[in-house]
Fold:
Amino acid sequence: MQLDIDGIEYDTDQYDTYNVYTQNKIRSTVYQGYKAMRNVIMDNKCQGLKLNEVKLKVNADREKIKKYLPFDDEEINSIFIFMEKVFPRL
Structure:
């Protein structure tokens, strides 16, 4: 997945080759996208859903995500792939 952060393009497939500062920026940006999707699909904000539960709910109601956020199917899938790779305990 290609990310544009402050006018610079980054590729999440090359995440391991970037320095720590750049990795933190990429992680932060992808996590913000994940949080935005989680907030759209959650009925109760105090629920504390795990990554797999959020993924199931998002896949069940992708149209709701597309309605409120500027993500397409490929971006949604890429966010979850990256989150599972970088945040395995979430």
About this structure: The chain has one domain: 2-86. Strands lie at 2-5, 8-11. The two ends are 20 Å apart (CA to CA).
